[in-house]
Amino acid sequence: MHADPESPCCREETQLLPDEWLKVKTVPTNGNLSPGVYYPTGSKRFVDATKQLPSPTETIPSRSHRHGVTRRTRRRAILKNGECNILKSRISQRRLRFLQDMFTTLVDAQWRWTLLVFTLSFILSWLGFALIWWLIAFTHGDLEPDHLPPLQDSANWKPCVFNINDFTSCFLFSIETQHTIGYGARTTTEECPEAIFIMCLQSIVGVMIQAFMVGIVFAKMTRPKHRTQTLLFSKYAVVCQRDGELSLMFRVGDLRKSHIIGASVRAQLIRSRTTKEGEVLSHYQTELELNADGCDSNLFFIWPITMVHRINRDSPFYGVSAADVLQERFEIVVILEGTIESTGQTTQARSSYTTSEIMWGHRFVPLVTYNRERQGYQVDYSKFDETTQVDTPLCSAKELDEFYGSQADRRSIGFQSPVPGDFIYRTSLNSGGVPASPILNIADRLVADAIRRASLTNRPSTVKYPPDYFNGPEDQSSSSSEEEIDKKKKKGNKKNGDKLV
Description:
Structural class: alpha+beta
Organism: Bombyx mori
Largest sheet: 5 strands, mixed
Membrane topology: Multi-pass membrane protein
Helix content: 25-40%
Oligomer: single chain
Keywords: Ion channel, Ion transport, Membrane, Potassium, Potassium transport, Transmembrane, Transmembrane helix, Transport, Voltage-gated channel
Number of helices: 12
Order of helices and strands: HEEHHHHHHHEEEEEEEHEEEEEEEHHH
GO molecular function: inward rectifier potassium channel activity
Subcellular location: Membrane
């Protein structure tokens, strides 16, 4: 008996399905749906899918759907925008360590802190040297009432700096000296050697502060990190068959005309692992082998490329099936590295995929076409995350290898037979004689394989049969006896004729 879709147990089971996807298994009474595919539904409710399918066709694998079990999800180590979700705490002498590397600290800091330090560095230097100039004038006696600029000629007084009346005058002279403005109203004299020394010192310090702060702002504005805003990763990763093997695929793209030179893509799997000694490694990293279009991970990155990880014996996903993905807790971190063509700097873009972002039974839609009007290849980025459903086995790659063995040419669902007619179709009982999708189940594929083997055997194109081959056994025996009597009569007549001669 089938469970009622409205029952609480079925509602609990539906919570284990991927977001917006429902696993459906077909039976011979309805061949309109293909096995091994997650079909989209309008809601996460199981009852919504029953509006399209009869209740006898609704089954849920018991391996991944157990009562009282919720779907396990992993917390991200790398966010979708590439930021590392890492919080560091309890660092000894943290402030001292960061102050020792002030340049990197200011480059990594937020813009408001960088601009604040930029402004304070100049203002504080102006005020500091203004105070020094005021002390020089005060100790020399230039600020006494009888020695102020209007009375200096009558009193025959030569100050350290002309036209210094108060602290404000010292502040203005400090700005003019540090930035070599030189309005000409205030100048130093040879009366005070300390004034000459301070003027030289302030000029050097001003150049150093300006070079330091301009370097920080320039480095912050030209950081390769901002180049990653125009490097895209697909929102989802898909699993489908390619050349007979289950493959994990994701897509990368570049929005700019200036390309990434020497681009390479890496992928790492982060999940827990238990060693032989019982040690639990909660964040064990495994490198995934990637290739694209028959090449390795080094890309000629001129248009979006689909990166492929073949799930074979060397893959950590070799024993993982579609049902296991619901219960596994892992994260796939993808990294794109290369040199920016316009600046020559090295950049790195990152993203990640969790189990809820892996779509089993889907394939990316092509997005590169040739535009005849503009005489060039056109990339439609509106289809960058778009996928299409394809027939894909729900079992693991290991189980698939055990089933097919070495028959690599018949591993893919939808295998084309060389028999005239191109494909073997299965007609459902409810379809009214209309052919369903090609080779929907293993039984049809085995029939197609048998027909193919029979068609490849060596046999004559036309077969010649005796005239009386299709007669009954009695007729055949009687006809043969009559032929023997006729032959004997002919032989007897020949003998008699010879004797007469």
